[in-house]
Specification:
The structure is a homodimer.
Chain A lengths: L1 H11 L11 H4 L29 E8 L3 H6 L5 H8 L3 E5 L5 H10 L6 E5 L10 E5 L5 E4 L12 E5 L4 E6 L10 H20 L4 E6 L23 H10 L5 E3 H5 L8 E2 L5 H4 L2 E2 L2 E6 L6 E6 L11 E6 L1
Parallel strand pairs in A: 1-2, 7-8
Antiparallel strand pairs in A: 1-14, 2-4, 3-4, 5-6, 6-7, 8-12, 9-12, 10-11, 13-14
Helix pairs in contact in A: 6-7
Chain A binds a DNA duplex through loops.
Chain lengths: ~325, ~325
Amino acid sequence: TRVEKKLSSRITKAGVTENLSVDEPWTVLTHKKPQKGWTGYDPKTMRPPPVAADTPHMKFLSWNVNGLRALLKLESFSALQLAQREDFDVLCLQETKLQEKDVNAIRETLLQGYDNSYWTCSVSKLGYSGTAIISRIKPLSVRYGMGISDHDSEGRLVTLEFDNFYLLNCYVPNSGDGLRRLPYRIGEWDTSLGNYMKDLEQSKPVILTGDLNCAHEEIDIFNPAGNKRSAGFTDEERKSFETNFLGRGFVDTFRKQHPNAVAYSYWGYRHGGRRTNKGWRLDYFLVSESISDKVHDAYILPDVGGSDHSPVGLILKL
Amino acid sequence: TRVEKKLSSRITKAGVTENLSVDEPWTVLTHKKPQKGWTGYDPKTMRPPPVAADTPHMKFLSWNVNGLRALLKLESFSALQLAQREDFDVLCLQETKLQEKDVNAIRETLLQGYDNSYWTCSVSKLGYSGTAIISRIKPLSVRYGMGISDHDSEGRLVTLEFDNFYLLNCYVPNSGDGLRRLPYRIGEWDTSLGNYMKDLEQSKPVILTGDLNCAHEEIDIFNPAGNKRSAGFTDEERKSFETNFLGRGFVDTFRKQHPNAVAYSYWGYRHGGRRTNKGWRLDYFLVSESISDKVHDAYILPDVGGSDHSPVGLILKL
DNA sequence: CTTGATACG
DNA sequence: CGTAGCAAG
């Protein structure tokens, strides 16, 4: 079964593998061309420019892996190689789909050099949702969930406290087929999360990363008109995104850095979305306004395969 | 997904493929050596001796395919090649795991030259059980089930009437984990099936083939001592096999032909059973005593892969 | 289309 | 270990 998986990945995801070949998705990008004063990442390598050697900074990667065990079975994927190539300090994962009983075995083998890892699993539905933060640096404190039992049974949120900020890794509930969960998502989850972030912000700036399950604007989705009633692009979710996050002082770092970039972080498996770049930008780094000018770059790594999402990155000057 | 399946089959089932390479399973066989007057099949090719050109006969193959759609996806499997190689007149399948809605598409593409096919599916549990008979010759009549509604909802039995016999293709209920279904299996199914066969026998001889889910004697299983409480080798099932079938005048054709052959037709996937020949003989051709001397040969084709069972064969002189 | 849990073998 | 249906995305 291992071998089978690995071969299939090679076959079906050819070109979106570890060798960083620049594939379709990027060719239709309309990033601003690099120009004098450009701070964005290189549209050819899709990697950010180096940070000056004397500038203290931290590098974050955030990735909805759509099942961590499946990812780790892929021959085309190596966590170690990803770490060496991207050199992140902190890795945030969403949709690990792990059960509590599987966490220990995985945490110990996943990544050497990142000895601080914090995992949360859905206790209501096994093998569903699940998030984790894996860090080189030991945080000052850890919190699982937001302290509201209605929102904390699906392993969707981990908060780490560092010296200069809180880092929140979140997998926002999908509104689901027929938008059955839209009321919960908008009326309860998003508002509670916004409140929780504002609470934390009273002591330190906040970074929220993860799959926020909302493509904010038309530029963030391949077919805006056709998806007005699709989970993740309803007016309600987009409005909620603005009201609860942007309107409360959190900055969409990628969009701020790359105002005109058509760049996606998710491509559904269903209709060859990745091949045809029928994507959505659902994965974010939002930061408190007070630290938004410390962003060296926010970026997306669409060449990293193994999931229906690609990782997104943030480099923050300290 | 197609490609994936096919590759995996090549890899995991190497050696048990279409090229008829004689693999492990057979090397420990203790068939009687071919000798003067030997009528059994060649232990090297595992195929029966030819029938004299002027002897009218029919050739039957019977196979628990463990999911027909999965089998047909395998690159290593071709129904046409199987038909050409084995030249059967009638093919009986068990555990097709088809739903009614999938039958038509499959029946039309499965085998040219075998235009008479009769399919039955479980209506109680979708994708469970299911049997079929595929024939060159058009039968005189067809019957699905045995006319007892308690036993007819899982698509386990098809009866075809030919000129000189009834052919029953059956997938006997597995007694299940913890032997939870043993009482039903013994007390209801086996007895009802025996009665049904005796009823039919009043008009014509009967042939029963299929996965009878019982290894009759110690010789029919790799580890008799360790499986005394395993479904398929309990004393209750073995006794029922004798009482309801052998004791009522139906002959185990393979065992009659090859009294000392250690030969299996099933190897569980769970512990590399096929590789190590940890097998069971669960698949049979039983025939009415009145035609038991018309058996040219009964045999097993352990070199045919793609399922946890191998096909079994019968050649009957007419 | 893909993951994972579950039933069944 | 493997097939299949199911929920979920």
